[in-house]
Amino acid sequence: MIEPDRTEWQVRCAFNAFCKRVLKNEAINIYNERQQRQTKEMTFSNLTPREEKQLYTLDKQYEGEEGESFQVAGKKITPKLLAKALRALPKEKRKTVLLYYFFEKSDVEIAELLDIPRSTVQYRRTSSFERLKRFLEEHADDWDD
């Protein structure tokens, strides 16, 4: 019988050395990437005021500008009026409306989330819509804020 050139022990040693070399090279790559990233990074305290302003934007949606309101059936609706109408709803109805219209949850998902029947969710949503409509109709003309 012919014996192979390498014994099993030699193969294991070669594989072990290969694995260690791969790990060492990966560690070197990670270290080099980190060093490159650090040369490009800058702390907030080192930013100029102009650079700081580029990091964020201000949402002017609720500043009450004239262009932010809209007309519905001859009534002026502002974001503040709409927010006040939502706050006028009872807490459980407000949750239902917000989950349905703003978080795009279905009646079934809302029912599971709030642990109530789906029909209750549907009732809360439709009755809330009617209350919002009445509130906006009554207050749209008096609201100047």
UniProtKB/TrEMBL annotation:
Presence of the UniProt keyword Oxidoreductase in the record: no
Molecular-function annotations in GO: DNA binding; sigma factor activity
One GO BP annotation of this record: DNA-templated transcription initiation
UniProt cross-references to Pfam families, sorted A to Z: Sigma70_r4_2
Keywords on record: DNA-binding, Sigma factor, Transcription, Transcription regulation
NCBIfam families: sigma70-ECF
Coiled-coil blocks: none
UniProt keyword Metal-binding, yes or no: no
Signal peptide annotation: none
Taxonomic source organism: Dolosicoccus paucivorans
The protein's name in its UniProt record: RNA polymerase subunit sigma
Location of the RNA polymerase sigma factor 70 region 4 type domain: 82-125
